[in-house]
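Model it.
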Amino acid sequence: MANIKVVNMTGAEVGTMELSDAVFSVTVNAAVLHAAVRAYLLNQRQGTQSTLTRTEVSGGGKKPWRQKGTGRARQGSTRAPQWTHGGVALGPKPRTYKTDLNKKVKRLALKGALSAKLSSDEIIVVDAITIDEYKTKTMANMLSAIGAGGKTLVVLAENNEFVKGSLSNIKGVKTALVNTINVYDILDCNKLVLAQGAAEQISEVYAQ
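Modeled.
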């Protein structure tokens, strides 16, 4: 099993812990990661974009000019696509972009993302991430002390509104629980900060 040091909120090393090889040391499959990220982004799309076709634009009931004899091209409606204020030809309509991956592929992608982060030395384990009031400065100081700058994903072992609320005020920082982590957020961050309890849960749950 891979060993990783554990630090506290001040950045001081307080011990080490073992991470499951079945989760954090798997072979990274780029195609699986791509499929997982693509599925995630597609599922974020609302699909509500819509344009009006010539039959939906108001007006255009009268023929602009007679069919023959004017020297101009024949026209049947001022709401045809080539006219200003006309309808849109082949424009987007509401649709669903929802896609899904089977459970094995999802799990393999998540393991691959975690393994990629560990091999790149971008995982930081903190023994406990907790505060008893909303204090953005405390959380900012913690991230600075442990060396987590820029885009950061903080994974908590249990829900803590004070921690989540304080971190949400810091640009580029996201929070998640063990059961809400996803491949896109893991790959998109510069540092993955795991509460020790969260790291233990991930090793236990996803190793199965």
